[in-house]
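[Help] Beginner question about ligand-bound structures

Sorry if this is basic. My supervisor gave me a protein sequence and a SMILES string for zinc ion and asked me to "get the holo structure". I don't really know what that means in practice or what format the answer should be in. Inputs are pasted below exactly as I got them.
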Amino acid sequence: MRDVSLWSSVLGVEKTVIERIVFDEEADKVVAHVRPRSRARNRCGVCGRRSPGYDTGEGRRRWRSLDLGTTSTVLEADSPRVRCPAHGVVVASVPWARHDAGHTKVFDDQVAWLATQASKSAVTELMRIAWRTVGSIITRVWNDIEAGTDRFAGLRRIGIDEISYKKGHKYLMVVVDHDTRRLIWAAPGRNSATVGEFFDLLGPDRCAQITHVSADGADFIDTIVAARCPAAVRVADPFHIVKWATEALDEVRRGAWNDARALARKEPKRGRGRPPAGSPPRPGNDLAKALRGGRYALWKNPENLTENQKIKLTWIAATDPKLYRAYLLKEGLRLIFTMPYPGAVEALERWISWARRCRIPAFVKLQRSIVKHRPRILAAIKHNLSNGLIESTNTKIRLLTRMAFGFKSPQALIALALLNLGGHRPDLPGRK
Ligand SMILES: [Zn+2]
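Answer (accepted):
No worries, everyone starts somewhere. Holo just means with the ligand present. The predicted complex, written as structure tokens, is below.
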């Protein structure tokens, strides 16, 4: 019957008998009354195994589907329960929706696709759903994709990183593949057990195939990697090393700023407006003001500085030699990672002896960490492993954590991250 295939196609359903289509005026919805075809009936909602019927469950229920034009559309059907030998009494599976879902598969898939392409408000307004519902939908879509793919096939060189969000109150452990440059795994947590979950999933054979592991230098990651991937070369992440240097520099800047403020407090107060001619100079106030604004000038790579920031930096060089020295130490370390290997070995040696004698406590301390991690830093340069991959993944996930605000569980954030960065973008329904 032509009408049947037309409606199957319009509603995006398979293995489904469409009984009738009505318009529910009260609810302002198109309602398609459906039932699974006989071969799709009496199957366990979890595993799909054919199982004996149990009872009629909660009777008729509805699943939200994609709108027809501008009108909300639902599928309506019985939702009987079956007794699965493995899963006990469960709601029978239906061919048009995922287990335990209140939306059809095509609806889920479109939401998941949109969530990787559009803003939060575009998704929720267009699809007329709450953001936390988007979280549940992308979680089940990702679980489906995950079940159908082998994310860990041919894994050789991985990077492990820890990402904090919600102002450092929550943590994600993430694993990236340096060869495909994709995110392959993430889980909530920040300890050895979390990393262990990944290696458990990978299994001993594939762990043995891992040749390189880059990480941020945390001792617990080191220990577990040594135990689980004995053959792997361990490598430092330049991104984290440069971040340490930036943090040391910021410590020096904060010290300078506090000193300047202490000095400023002793200086005479001034009223509003232009100071009268001949009023006494206030170097402490000037310095404090400049250092407050100088933060970005000190942080950025020199090639990205604005004219104003360049002026600020020159000014710091002239007025605060210690802070400027700290800046040069940070920049020196950053540049080593851009050098070819033989030059980098020598440059790192020189940097260490410079930092050891620099009389800036934050950098003397940093120098000790650099010495501790020297073999891994040099391995990173030699194997050219993580050029920006860890940094860009880190930045993108941080953006996604902001987008994921309002999801009920971290699983939804992880699903969003893997859908976006894992190379498995969901298909838009009806476009294959
Ligand atoms: Zn089952």
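A couple of things worth pointing out: The CA atoms of residues 188 and 410 lie 7 Å apart. The chain has three domains: 1-102, 157-237+386-404, 240-265+282-383. Feel free to follow up in the thread.
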